[in-house]
From TrEMBL:
Species per Swiss-Prot/TrEMBL record: Streptomyces tabacisoli
GO MF annotation list: phosphoribosylglycinamide formyltransferase activity
GO cellular component: cytosol
Name of this protein: Phosphoribosylglycinamide formyltransferase
Gene Ontology terms: biological process: 'de novo' IMP biosynthetic process
Gene3D superfamilies named among the record's database cross-references: Formyl transferase, N-terminal domain
Amino acid sequence: KRLVVLVSGSGTNLQALLDAVAAQGVESFGAEIVAVGADREDIAGLERAERAGLPTFVCRVKDHASREDWDRALAEATAAYEPDLVVSAGFMKIVGKEFLARFGGRCVNTHPALLPSFPGAHGVRDALAYGAKVTGCTVHFVDDGVDTGPIIAQGVVEIRDEDDESALHERIKEVERTLLVDVVGRLARNGFSIEGRKVVIP
Ligand code: GRF
């Protein structure tokens, strides 16, 4: 299977996928990463992709006349690599209609909270501020809402009294990387179906 990974930041989730493919080999992992896309330049995620010898593309909202134009450009840039699955790994933009028309049902996102609690851009901060005692991460399919698509897998992380946002996020990201690698590998190897809100991986 062919994967396009979308990133906006440090790209440690991308790195975990790259490492898993390198360690297990494309055959046994079930997929190869064919390109990495981003919504901004000069991020560590793109450097990781370049270091791995992968093609990259950048699609910035500000280079387009409208959000719809950006969405179409992102969909076209992604489609050029003919992915079977798209992985949004810390991609901090909400994709639009055109992107979903092409990749809906085969685009996976990772979110640093236990959805449906604490969706949005500040999942870690919001769980902490709420006083939750456990949080975690969720790997789910992308739909037209904000972190609302069918859930594939979740990992739990305890919140400690002394936690601040960055300490907690680091512990979540450790669980998140393992979860994402596991989910993407299983989806790629086994195939899947989405039945309402239920994701079935045979
Ligand atoms: C992850 O926790 C992701 O869920 C969140 O941003 C983080 C991205 O980390 N939205 P990285 O860029 O993969 O290191």
